[in-house]
């Protein structure tokens, strides 16, 4: 029988009523003749609560135990979803990541899926089971420890299962009815897209649009998974939501197709480091070893052989970054006067494949921000995006102003 993957995010399984509603959606697809793999997130808010408990217990925690704790939210919803389906007379059972097994690397808290041998679940489908409910976000390392895939990781679980089982489609059910030109919670003018190219979705996701985890888009692109984002709160047709697809299938042709933001950025500045060959390696080597996701980097103009080095990283990694720098300083690898952490910043980005061929995007972006009196602290660009770091209090204003400036409320 053809296989369909259906993923339900946290708000879609937030309580027993919503789990029942999601189970009904699954029932519709089972009735059409699909064997369904359901991937569930933890109930909304649960993972945050678990992360909070870990941080309170141990600020520089052992990531293996972090994973043991934060993976547990999905175990609850997987079991409840299987029970709900059974109550509807649909043959179903739950699977935790290690039972499948979802084999991952040992990079705890941000593990990558290496393989999903389908044999165990396929054997159950062959026996007449119609729905495999799998706890998203989790797997097992070669050492046999529980791993998690990074926040939002259930999306990646879903796409990886769709690839492993050759699913006809991977439907991501969430609390919005598709991918928008920007977060519809920030701008009422945000417009739903019927289709978005993999490259643009990848960039939007990596710049903060959390509707899909970045890695899930990468996997869908690599394995040609038909990926769709749609609402779990509305009746759905086969055309509903947003299809993430190849660039050639997207009709819109404009320089910018979306605005993304990330609240969780910190700007870190090392004051007065020696400006010598090898200094960047001496700073960013230890940061990388500490697992810090450095994004933007600026080295300021040097004076008297000393310079300031600025980089951005996720706010939650500030303590680790500080520790890595202090350790590098005490070992003599680097020398600096002070490390300043500015956590009141946000990153706002304009993304569009059309930027490759149309100029003037940066100029429009900087003029728009300047007209709003917003100071740009750091700039980074690539072929299809421009990002700026600004004071967090202006983030929503910046998103709205840029959405207006690039006329994203209008269909191209
Ligand atoms: P889930 O719990 O279902 O995984 P998430 O909260 O992770 O849901 O992702 C859905 C949210 O992503 C939406 O509620 C919305 O606020 C946010 N979002 C950010 N950018 C976008 C965008 N461009 N289009 C749609 N949603 C977006
Ligand atoms: N529950 C996890 C999180 O909140 C994974 C997910 O929902 O995708 O990050
Ligand atoms: Mg999510």
Rg measurement, Å: 23 Å
Unreliable stretches (pLDDT < 50, length at least 5) are none
Q: Quick one: CATH superfamily of the largest domain? A: Acetylglutamate kinase-like
Strand order of the largest sheet: 3-6-2-1-9-11-12-10
Order of helices and strands: EHEHHHEEEHEEEHEEHHEEEHEEHEHEEH
CATH structural fold name of the largest domain: Carbamate kinase
Continuous helix count: 12
When the domains are counted, the total is 2
Q: What's the main sheet like?
A: 8 strands, mixed
Total count of strands: 18
In whole angstroms, the N-to-C terminal distance is 40 Å
- By secondary-structure content and strand pairing, the structural class works out as alpha/beta
Overall CATH architecture of the largest domain: 3-Layer(aba) Sandwich
Overall pLDDT score: 95
Shape field? globular
Q: Identify the CATH class of the largest domain.
A: Alpha Beta
Q: What hetero molecules are in the model?
A: adenosine-5'-diphosphate, aspartic acid, magnesium ion
Strand content: 25-35%
Helicity level, as a percent range? 25-40%
